[in-house]
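Appendix B, record 7
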Amino acid sequence: MDDALKRELLDKLNAEMNVKKESKDARFDSSTGTLYNNSFRNYAVAHVDTDNFTKGKVYEGGEIISGRMQVIDDHNRPANIDVADYDFEFRLHVIEK
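Structure tokens (predicted):
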């Protein structure tokens, strides 16, 4: 994708989200094609009951690295969940208002 087009898309997104250019609230990593924004959140919803997770509970996750998202389980321990895991439903890049 053309760098000028990337900057234009990022500027439009920032304008829609009322992000000031100088605030550094959003950035685009051109090497990975990932848009980072402080108001984006990732969530995992458990579809099964296990020792570490409760069915129907929503877990806030971190960044996705190598296809895995880190969440804090019911025992306050970090757990890495594969985004292809059918035991969870993932809501990625949800905009917090």
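Remarks on this record: The radius of gyration is 16 Å. The mean pLDDT is 80.
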